[in-house]
Amino acid sequence: MPKRKAFLLRMDPRILEALQHWADDELRSLNGQIEYVLRDALRRTGRVKEAADRSPDEPAPGASPTDSEEDAEPPKANE
Questions:
Q1: Inter-CA distances, 30 with 25, 33, 44, 47, 71, Å
Q2: Contact (CB, 8 A) for 19 and 33
């Protein structure tokens, strides 16, 4: 897993409170919510590629979180 860089972020207390309420609604930590909002903004403006904008624990788009190669059925031969 790539290392995460810590840094100080100063913001208006009202924005911080609104983000905390949003995070609570989404069952995320405040840090996770801030990262989600920033990642979404970067994706929408085309500043980050789709594969690079996911956190390491997020599944790829279209992938089921329960899917694994071990459980997958082998491809069927055309008869």
A1: 11, 5, 21, 23, 35
A2: yes
- Residue 24 is part of which domain span? 13-44
Q: How many residues does the chain have?
A: 79
Answering whether pTM is above 0.70, one says: no
Local confidence pLDDT in tens for the 79 residues of the chain: 789 899 999 999 999 999 999 999 999 999 999 999 999 999 999 999 876 656 655 555 555 545 444 445 555 666 4
- Is residue 36 domain-resident? yes
Q: Is 1 a member of any domain? A: no
Paired tokens of 48? 């980050």
Q: Which residues contact 20 (CB under 8 A, 6 or more apart)?
A: 30, 33
**59 burial type by CB count under 10 A (0-12 exposed, 13-18 middle, 19+ buried):** exposed
